[in-house]
């Protein structure tokens, strides 16, 4: 610890040492003051185990929500969850020389140093001023910033200000002494307060350049409630009001109040805080008196002595101690102090008149203007009073209070007094009443444990069994709606509705799924049921479950209140929840919608949970609109119309990210190294209210498809990330369901390895595509070889048939002709028979010649190449001669000779299509298109005729016609694809497609095969 810290610490110990010396030497001691009361605020302490620095005697909070702490170990900042040491990315912080901290009016952190330096932290960056900028080499005791941006530094050599160029010392033109000045205070209005020689107070209003001198002598300024400015008198060190107005009675109390220590601080609610070696003291003005409260280390304070107090406008008070940090804030739930007479694990409650509430056997008056309930002189609600616990309470519409006791009696208390009514004899066996309600006739309904339900009317009890449809078991809850209908809740999702004498049973078949029904309430035409498994709404036909965000199901509901504004208050084992009318409306319109809700729990002063067995209900609304809740620990109340809401949204910040043990600062376009797969991203949100309640959602664009609900977690984890560009976005809510509209974002990328790079993947994709193409080509070649093999077999068969015909039939016919010629030569020339025979022999020669031509045509070696285009053109023109239909021939690409069999089959298919088009289609135009472009041969025949019926297309042919089927069979023989498109009244189109390797004659095929062999480096062979 350096010399400065040692001296500061010694000064704080000196008063305690002097006091010990005085006591040792036997000086008289005055009567002790009354023991301070405990501080009645929600308290949280952080110590070294939580990361808090010790002996933080300087604190400041900036407008972004960071709490800054100056400690011997350095400068720290705190977001309400985690402490972190601030190390600026630029410049030396000179942390061991820090003397004072202050939050600037424009959001920066101002730092005053021991040796004449002023530092500024803004948006995580640090800058400083020193002697070269006009500051003296002198301790900076305080530093401020006005609303106009001017900086002020009070030093041991005078007051200096900075307006953007250079620090300047105040001069006489500003009407303030230029000598050493004391502590400064910049109030919320932008007025600068300072005391000069002899502690005379000066002030400089916002945007003015001339100080005003007051007649007041004071120091240790503090801003209190409503902008009041307080100080300490120099004579007797009492409080003095410097600016603002305070009620005379209250002012007199404050000005005569004996202070514990110097440097007291008012918070924004008007309470006085005093740091002390004995702990922390708080004095509040309540009921025309000042009440001192305290907390010491043994009562939960983080340290033994308090060093500094800081408050903000949202009710939080921060106390720095010698061992950590403490936070005090108002409780939203007010607990009433119950005496030892209030026994039992839970307290039965019932509303009364004029804001009164009955708790057990005592009448509780409404809270006063200071939210206090005077429980010192409570009157009994019944006479004689009830001793012991009470299972339930009920006040009927006439104001009669019904109190069951465990001695099988029921107390009826009205204006005339208390009457004892004996319960039926059966109650002596169970001695417990679960629930009560009343009907429109003045009857009282009572549920007896393990007995069933009874009705008290005209002084007599009767069983409810006379109403068919009502379960013959004790109801767990009863409620009478505004319309007079009675509702009874039972175990296992059963509710009975009694309207007059008609009973309606409601259960799981209508969607009820809350288990044991523990409470029912009817208001504003809404019927709500709460149970062990959640909350449900009944619309008269079906039940709709109402669930909350974050998998909140509102388990164990024993209290429901719908207020006049339509909000629903739910008391369950997880706390008290408020669901707004707007959220309820969304849930009732969309059953899958999860409502947003406001939670009241231990962070609001609530202890215990809703009792599950008895007493029920655990939530009631008093006649003045205040809501009362009974838990397993105590009784609490809240005014739903006086709730303080935090309208500000949290400030979002991405702290950084970690991967493989390495930390990365949150700089945009951050590039992470190769093989980064697992990532941890830290983020936070800053709030002046309750940081623990901030909810988060995040999304990693490029990975997450939807927003991820993180709850209060401030870290996102990702695994198995791929290389690429990402954007991390996070939003937050302020704990009241209001979400930030703008997300904090961080762009980063993960570098790919060689095998993960885009160009490598592209090469792999190209290689894979090339391999697939080669495989396709090989497959196509194999298929072509198979087809051509079959075609060659057909050609060989034709040649064999031709040889057989030539060697048998033609030779035999030739022999017969020769014999007939020999016989004819023997007939005289002038005989008519000879003339006839010669004519027949000539005809036989012609038939034989035609037969030889036919046989020759069957031989492959002599098979002529067919010009398919020319043949189809001739056929089209021939068909057009006797028709009004026009014919067109289109050729795409350079014509190539087709394989003879392919040409033959293609011609046969086209011929059939043309005959159909000219004969049956009634077309105005018929087109034939031949496309020789690689890699396929394509033939299209289309017309604009009446088309073919869908039934014919589905059947494949017309009845007793085989043309369509024959066309498909011909195409199938040569592995061609023949597609038909036709629609009634829209024409017909045939498409014939065959791969080039199969379609073209051997010369073209050989060229393609040799090209493929060159690509595959295969040995080439001559075709045989």
Task: Give the tags.
5-stranded mixed β-sheet, Methylamine Dehydrogenase, Chain H, alpha+beta, 35% strand, 6-stranded antiparallel β-sheet, single chain, Immunoglobulin-like, 1024 residues, disordered N terminus
Number of helices: 12
Beta-strand residue percentage? 25-35%
What number is the mean pLDDT? 83
Helix % is: 10-25%
Signal peptide: 1-31
Domain Two component regulator three Y: 688-750
Domain Histidine kinase/HSP90-like ATPase: 908-997
Transmembrane segments: 758-776
What features would you describe in this structure?
Mean pLDDT is 83; it is low at 1-32 and 1003-1024. Among the domains are: 335-638, YVTN repeat-like/Quinoprotein amine dehydrogenase (Methylamine Dehydrogenase, Chain H, 7 Propeller), CATH 2.130.10; 651-756, Immunoglobulin-like; 764-862; 868-1008, Histidine kinase-like ATPase, C-terminal domain (Heat Shock Protein 90), CATH 3.30.565. 35% of the residues are buried. The termini are far apart. α5 runs antiparallel to α6. It has a 6-stranded antiparallel beta sheet. It has a 5-stranded mixed beta sheet with strand order 1-24-23-22-21. The protein is α+β, with helices and mostly antiparallel strands and 1024 residues long.
